[in-house]
């Protein structure tokens, strides 16, 4: 056996040994997490809830207990959440808006909004919620409804580097870590089961009713103005009599 073949065999053995040790020391990262996303109420103002259930990780039922949880939810252009509303209500779910929000523009002029929801794992579960609103859509002939699909969120967890630091797919940067982070990001994106898109049917105006609505609005304004003037006149007349 010549020297070349001997070196080649030694290199192959070293590579096989490396992969054997790597597979033996790394975890399978079978996170065993399920998420149920539900849209509540009716009309233009609704509420999204997220029920996250954490199964056993490598046989440890309490593996996720007290871990931090982050959801990244993208709201399509036809929907929005109000930062002012959440701040005034001091909402129980910590919410961070990653996009600028204009609550007054129509769906055709709006852009998708990215929202981060933060929570913790307690008793193997996490419950998060987000109030959302439908934007007005441009009227069309015949009216009807427009269907807006709400995608499932991305799930991130932070259990500290000692718990999930060995999982493959770690990176220095992701949506929950700044770009100038010098160390490995403590947040890791994990796959979830059960997440499915939600569909929201939003009514839109009928352009064929334009004239009817226009004349109806003018009539209501005119009759309302006449009624107010009549009441003012009657009030002054009664004051003069006294």
UniProtKB/TrEMBL annotation:
The record describes its membrane topology as: Single-pass membrane protein
Q: Which GO terms describe its cellular component?
A: endoplasmic reticulum membrane
InterPro entries in the cross-refs: PIG-X/PBN1 (IPR013233), PIGX (IPR040039)
**Record pathway:** Glycolipid biosynthesis; glycosylphosphatidylinositol-anchor biosynthesis
**Localization, UniProt:** Endoplasmic reticulum membrane
The UniProt transmembrane annotation reads: 212-229
Per the UniProt entry, what are the Gene Ontology biological process annotations, in alphabetical order? GPI anchor biosynthetic process
Q: Which domain of life is it from?
A: Eukaryota
Keyword vocabulary terms for this entry = Endoplasmic reticulum, Glycoprotein, GPI-anchor biosynthesis, Membrane, Transmembrane, Transmembrane helix
- Family per UniProt? Belongs to the PIGX family.
Primary role = Stabilizing subunit of the glycosylphosphatidylinositol-mannosyltransferase I complex which catalyzes the transfer of the first mannose, via an alpha-1,4 bond from a dolichol-phosphate-mannose (Dol-P-Man) to the glucosaminyl acyl phosphatidylinositol (GlcN-(acyl)PI) intermediate to generate alpha-D-Man-(1->4)-alpha-D-GlcN-(1->6)-(1-radyl,2-acyl-sn-glycero-3-phospho)-2-acyl-inositol and participates in the sixth step of the glycosylphosphatidylinositol-anchor biosynthesis. Probably acts by stabilizing the mannosyltransferase PIGM.
Specify the protein name: Phosphatidylinositol-glycan biosynthesis class X protein
Species per Swiss-Prot/TrEMBL record: Pieris macdunnoughi
**What are the leading ranks of the lineage?**
Eukaryota, Metazoa, Ecdysozoa, Arthropoda, Hexapoda
